[in-house]
């Protein structure tokens, strides 16, 4: 499929729609990560790092972390057992979850926003790679992920920018919801 079609076909496919029990092969994930590794990077800092939760046990650990974070960080008046269980549900529904991590250039040769942008471009490469093979995916950035440094064992200069959920799906194609590009462009 040509690049324009691929870009227009890309959608957020949420974990609740993934086919349960249909595994994602490690080689598929490796290819998606290799494509991420080809993202543009100013000064070749290559700030993207990934932690893959692929096994059932690792996804259960992530699920437990997400639920526990909700329990510890939710005001009593907003807390319910049902919401706590839901907070940990997505890792169990996904075939794999990838923690998206930015590792800041230790010399700070470029502004942080450029490294965040590079990581986002790596994620876009992942998203387009998933779209090309009809693998559903979704980039989520709940507070639990953004504050997961200890859980992920991150070092100085590293921070989690979210979780990338993946799973096989049978969702029908849905049209995009974008306004006309003409409303966003000024020709000079």
Please outline the helices and strands:
Layout: H1 3-9, H2 26-36, E1 48-53, H3 56-73, H4 81-87, H5 89-93, E2 96-103, H6 112-132, E3 135-140, H7 143-146, H8 149-152, E4 158-168
Antiparallel strand pairs: 1-2, 2-4, 3-4
Helix pairs in contact: 2-6, 3-4
Please provide a written account of the structure.
This protein has one domain: 3-Layer(aba) Sandwich (NADH Oxidase). 41% of the residues lie in helices and 16% in strands. The longest helix is centred in the middle third of the chain and has 21 residues. The chain starts with a helix and ends in a 20-residue tail after the last strand. The model has no long low-confidence stretch (mean pLDDT 96).
């Amino acid at each position: 499929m040509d690049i324009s079609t691929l870009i227009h076909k890309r959608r957020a496919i949420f974990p609740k729609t993934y086919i349960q029990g249909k595994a994602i092969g490690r080689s598929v994930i490796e290819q998606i990560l290799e494509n991420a590794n080809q993202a543009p990077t100013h000064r070749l800092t290559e700030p993207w790092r990934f932690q893959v939760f692929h096994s059932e046990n690792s996804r259960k650990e992530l699920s437990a972390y997400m639920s526990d974070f909700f329990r510890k960080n939710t005001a009593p008046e907003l807390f319910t057992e049902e919401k706590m269980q839901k907070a940990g549900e997505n890792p169990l529904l996904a075939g794999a979850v990838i923690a998206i991590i930015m590792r800041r250039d230790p010399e700070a040769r470029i502004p942080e926003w450029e490294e965040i942008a590079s990581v986002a471009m790596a994620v876009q490469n992942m998203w387009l790679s998933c779209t090309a093979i009809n693998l559903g995916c979704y980039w989520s950035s709940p507070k639990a992920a953004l504050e997961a440094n200890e859980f992920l064992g991150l070092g100085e200069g590293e921070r989690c920018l979210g979780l990338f959920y993946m799973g096989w799906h049978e969702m029908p194609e849905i049209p995009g919801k974008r306004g006309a590009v003409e409303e966003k462009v000024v020709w000079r």
